[in-house]
Specification:
RNA-binding; 3 domains; Gyrase A, domain 2; 5-stranded parallel beta sheet; Rossmann fold; Isoleucyl-tRNA Synthetase, Domain 1; globular; 553 residues; 21 helices; alpha/beta
Length: 553
Amino acid sequence: MLIFDDLFAQLLEAIKINLPEVDNTDLVSDKSGHADYSFRTFRLSRLMKTSQEDLFSIIKEALKSVGFVSNVALSSGYVNISILDSFFLESVSKYLSERGQYPDTFQDPERVLIEHTSTNPTGPIHIGRSRNSVIGDGIARIFKRCGYRTTTQYYVNDSGKQVAALYKGFQMYHEKDDPTLGNLLDGYQKIYKTMTDREKEKELVEPEIKRYESGDAEILQKIREYCSIVLQSIVESLQKIGIKIDDYVWESSFLRGGELDSVFESLSDKIEDDSGAKFVSMPDGYKIYLRRSNGTSLYFARDIAYHLFKALNADWIIDILGEDHKDHAKNLSYVLKEFMGYTPRLDFVTYGFMSLEGSKFSTRMGNIVSLDEFVSRATEEGLKVVREKRPDLSESRLHEIAEAVAVSSIRFSIVKVNASKQLDFRWKDALSFEGDSAPYVMYAYARSRSILSRIESVPAGDKSWTMNEWERRLARTLFSYPYHLRDALDSLRPEIIANYCLELVKSFNDFYSQCPVIGSGEETEKRVMLVKNFSEILKDAGSLIGIKFLKEM
RNA sequence: GGGUCCGUGGCCUAGUUUGGAUAAGGCACCGUCCUUCUAAGUCGGUGAUCGUGGGUUCGAAUCCCACCGGGCCCGCCA
């Protein structure tokens, strides 16, 4: 829960005393530049058959007692409400100095579990898949920031067809070799080339699945070993872009622990039979198979078991999934809630697929970019740029900056786009460090730190803190941070934070070019305060989406 | 074919969940500003019938319907 001076709520409450019919869609934070808040009279005027002028008088009267309101005016149906110049800056400063953060938080008892990435341990993570990680990690950080007890989890698929193929491929093509990452991937790719149709797949892989699920010690041990090797490389790739997942849950643990049997037991009155195979029916008649006729389990059944397991330690469960899993998510949610009385809050964030230079990612066409490759190319590009701009810095410092720029850029370029949209990856755009990008954000931070580092003593200034338009806009944008944070949390949309960062930086850059800080006499104290608040809040917000901030760059 | 998501200047994106005051940024292009705190920046300019057509409304990028274009799903794969 966020703690801050919620002006919006206070204004609304004050107006409600004299005008109980008001609801929170009548009042908006104004974006048109007319005022700070704007009350729209249209709805109430019709509803109450009261003129806009009369409503205006009532509102003006109601706001008389509100100390931070400086002006109330009626303009073409809008009641424009202005806030005292000093209020925004004072409020933010108070929180930062007294509580250490703005907004402050109150620990929420709800335990939130966010599952993300969960890519099959059958190959390195590529840039398309990393969209999942970037979104998931962003959402997790937003929850933590808002005071939730948050855990992230990676579901390791070490059972089923794909990993059986990983095993079989290695046995077929590299039996005498060490199970290195390279050999495992090679075997996997080769076996997939031979599995040209579903019959071929069945023939090669199904006996292995059967062995696996019947508890054959050899295959169990091998698959765990192979998956661990591939998973390790994925974990390392994620680490490079600053993502660390709290828990790894192995799918196979539900096969062995008996959880799967309890799933079938508790669903027994819903389960139907199709020549030995087991399924449940959705309201539209669609059949969801839980078990093959040969007795082995299917993904849906194991995913039920997994979600029951999640519920043991969480009140709110969030899964980040590719849009190909959308129907699965809907059906899973239905079965859990309607058939099994599932109580935790369950949300799915699905994201559109990424493409590469306008065409589909495709492993077999070689049309793919691994996360590692992207990181190293971005770092290289970053190094080129920093070297040119900062020839004065040491080699190690240049590398440090290049890496921060690369990682931040990668995450920012992915997270800033709404998850529901398809995202086309283009090298040219991804490696550009200008405009609406992470370096743009980082650079503004470095500028603010540079100013602060040059401040020795601050002369006491004019305490009334009247502001010019640039100071005011910056102060107001800083103040608005909690609203964006709350929006991002409620809608599970980390891009709201990315866009807020851009908006905040824009207001800072305008301020920077118009308002000198050092040596500005009476203005200095106020401006230093603005710069200080800016650097803290920008770092706070940007860190949520994985931007790394440097004092200089 | 059925379901579902997306469609905003030449290109990319915000705004759509909660309908409101001249549709907001970036890239590219043209021009401006470094003897003020880092020019990865600032300012100005060119460029949008918000996919199309209806509807609801005092008011629609936003809500409803139809259509068009694209993604994804429709497996005893995951």
